[in-house]
């Protein structure tokens, strides 16, 4: 089965956004055992889109489209595909109801252009949109398969995973042995270091396959195998997973695609432990990561963003002579990271207190270099640990890496405690 | 001048990396006034690459290739292009010297395959590689222009900027007028509502052009025109910009691509005003957005994440009977949003205090629906305003939209103050 991905949108040709949809779909199709031979990007122009469709029909069995199904006049994917296939369009009743309800629920008037989002090609299967208003579609004709998905990744990705993939498995991949995959997640280690540790397994791979998977800020390995059924697949994958975990026990935190903060929230909520945080240079990024996980309310109570020295003193009683004066260690120091972590823990009466203080840049601070960051972990009845980080990158990268570092350290601390159940995130989780 | 970008590399088709090269080149070409009509990705396969080249030759004047010019067996871009053009290849002497010197300098043996990196198509202009070993090339034939660049961005980007672009300006663009663009940024209005307000301008556009630009959580319009020089371009663009601003004065916040928080930070820093925040459901996201802007330290001092009712009482003295009890309004209420904003403002002694309290989901809370959020703005010596939001989407979307809403409201408040200089973000900013 050969596939072509056609991304529709002039903003791609103007270089305003990167084509992450093509990447997502390519990964997904590879996992299904489908070869992607071409990716094409074309603008919001009916003639050129039609040309791209015709070329793709000549060289692929499965054509996947993203973009061009929104409410604006530039959105023309369904209309163009219908024209190529010689079919008419109609308004999908269920999709139209969803669009109308969206506006009525908010007491807003629906502008006419929103009607387009419910367009459907005659004979196609609608793919409902759970995170937006534009309905997708799937269509089989003369041994070819057409999937039309929205442009915005947060609409396209769930629609592919929940709607298009099952449709493909049912209609296009009936003769294939299904491909089963697991995503192994790692923290506290970089991508090339991980690859180096696994180099023998990677070089000698046959079945299952091992693919490093580069996603911003995360380190992931995908292991895949074709098998007649799930039980046999999981057995094969489990053996390889065990080998990998044995090589990296201090870094593999899950065998499903979840962020590290989810594991931390689950472990702590189950163990009845709580955490608070005092953030300086990260300005709330750590706490917003923790609270992005549903259920965090049972283990995270609150914390403080003490961005200025004054606020470190006022909100957390950091002694002035730690911060200012010729002999002061300064805000970016082990001493202050330690005090912040302990003070916020005591103020909120939580089991753990976390702190981050550093120089995110671009300006240096206190004559300390950009990327110097101290992270602290205080523990009820236990020792406070402070780690010094020397991070590279821009302001945002340094902030993100600081947050990931402290989450990793907290994860390691939880593993060391005997009173916390620390199952691998994923299949083992209840 | 029509261009097509062809990225060569099976790792792209497997979804292992994203095609950032296409984005970079598209932006660069747009700035040169060259229209990119297609982007194609093809694997390390000579037959399919040849097909892609032939299709591109039929529809573009400028063909840019990235990737497939390294030392491995899979690298075949130059060979394939030469075959299509009916030309031979030779070894470029200067490039070969550079490759040999690289190995001698390191006391390493040069493997034979490295010789490929110095390959040159007969009659082409070599483009030296300052950050790697693979030499690029530029070639003009029968009114078409071919540029071959390396795959790794850190080699491709400087080679384009320093070598390919001057070559294009000299050989291909002697008659073109450059394209000038401005990005107009809007807040407090949705994409389709924006388009509806501008529908006449959009429908009747000729020159400059108007393109809505969809980026997650942001609403942007790009206006573009070709002109012989910058002064004339800015005059044309300025007239259209003024028309657009007149239609949307309460929403257009910048004419360069910056986030709203940057404008807020700049205005407040210039006016010597400060702000603090108390966040519940957003857990630090608002404060991390403000602190993502360099220079925020002069206007943002700190704040509190009061995720639990206990912390709202403990950290900000919210009265218990506001939060609990049969007659209590509850944490998600106008009353509590008001108190939080005022309390954090007084605690930190800032000019503005912001608050966010709501139900981010997926679980409802206090028998209130997911998406119900109250945002508060307290002002020194002024009135506290609270807004009720009814947001849709998942947990992360609701949190992001809450933050964007309160930033918008703060922006509007600053505009109303007479003591704050509120220039449009962008050209007018110092």
TrEMBL record, chains A, B:
CDD domains named in the record: cinA (cd00885)
Domain MoaB/Mog: 4-171
Residues making up the signal peptide according to the UniProt record: none
Database matches in SMART domains: MoCF_biosynth
Domain of life: Bacteria
Cross-referenced InterPro entries: CinA, CinA-like_C, CinA_C, CinA_KH, Competence-induced_CinA, MoaB/Mog-like_dom_sf, MoaB/Mog_dom
Stored Pfam families: CinA, CinA_KH, MoCF_biosynth
Similarity annotation: Belongs to the CinA family.
Protein name: Putative competence-damage inducible protein
């Amino acid at each position: 089965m050969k596939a072509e991905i056609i991304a529709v949108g002039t903003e791609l040709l103007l270089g305003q956004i990167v084509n992450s949809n093509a990447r997502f779909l390519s990964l997904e199709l590879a996992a299904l055992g489908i070869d992607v031979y071409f990716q094409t990007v074309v603008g919001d122009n009916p003639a050129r889109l039609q040309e791209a469709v015709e070329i793709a029909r000549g060289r692929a069995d499965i054509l996947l489209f993203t973009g061009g199904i929104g409410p604006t006049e530039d959105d023309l994917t369904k209309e163009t595909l219908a024209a190529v296939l010689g079919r008419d369009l109609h308004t999908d009743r269920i999709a139209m109801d969803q669009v109308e309800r969206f506006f009525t629920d908010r007491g807003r008037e629906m502008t006419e252009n929103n009607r387009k989002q419910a367009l459907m090609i005659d004979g196609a299967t609608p793919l409902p949109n759970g995170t937006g208003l534009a309905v997708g579609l799937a269509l089989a004709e003369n041994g070819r398969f057409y999937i039309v998905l929205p442009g915005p990744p947060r609409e396209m990705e769930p629609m592919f995973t929940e709607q298009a993939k099952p449709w493909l498995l049912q209609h296009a991949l009936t003769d294939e042995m299904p491909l089963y995959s697991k995503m192994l997640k790692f923290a506290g280690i970089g991508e090339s270091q991980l690859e180096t540790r696994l180099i023998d397994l990677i070089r000698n791979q046959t079945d299952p396959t091992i693919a490093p998977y580069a996603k911003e800020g995360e380190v992931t390995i995908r292991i895949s195998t074709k098998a007649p059924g799930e039980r046999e697949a999981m057995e094969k994958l489990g053996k390889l997973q065990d080998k990998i975990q044995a090589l990296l026990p201090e870094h593999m935190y899950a065998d499903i695609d979840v962020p590290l903060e989810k594991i931390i929230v689950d472990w702590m909520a189950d163990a009845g432990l709580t955490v608070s945080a005092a953030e300086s240079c990260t300005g709330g990024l750590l706490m917003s990561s923790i609270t992005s996980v549903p259920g965090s309310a049972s283990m995270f109570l609150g914390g403080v963003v003490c961005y200025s020295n004054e606020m470190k003193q006022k909100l957390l009683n950091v002694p002035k002579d730690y911060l200012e004066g010729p002999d002061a260690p300064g805000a970016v120091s082990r001493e202050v990271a330690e005090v912040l972590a302990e003070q916020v823990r005591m103020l909120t009466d939580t089991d753990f207190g976390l702190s981050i203080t550093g120089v995110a840049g671009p300006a240096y601070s206190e004559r300390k270099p950009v990327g110097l960051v101290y992270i602290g972990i205080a523990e009820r009845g236990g020792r406070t640990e402070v780690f010094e980080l020397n991070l590279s990158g821009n302001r945002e990268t340094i902030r993100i890496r600081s947050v990931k570092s402290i989450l990793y350290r907290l994860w390691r601390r939880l593993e060391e405690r005997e009173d916390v159940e620390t199952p691998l995130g994923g299949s083992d989780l209840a």
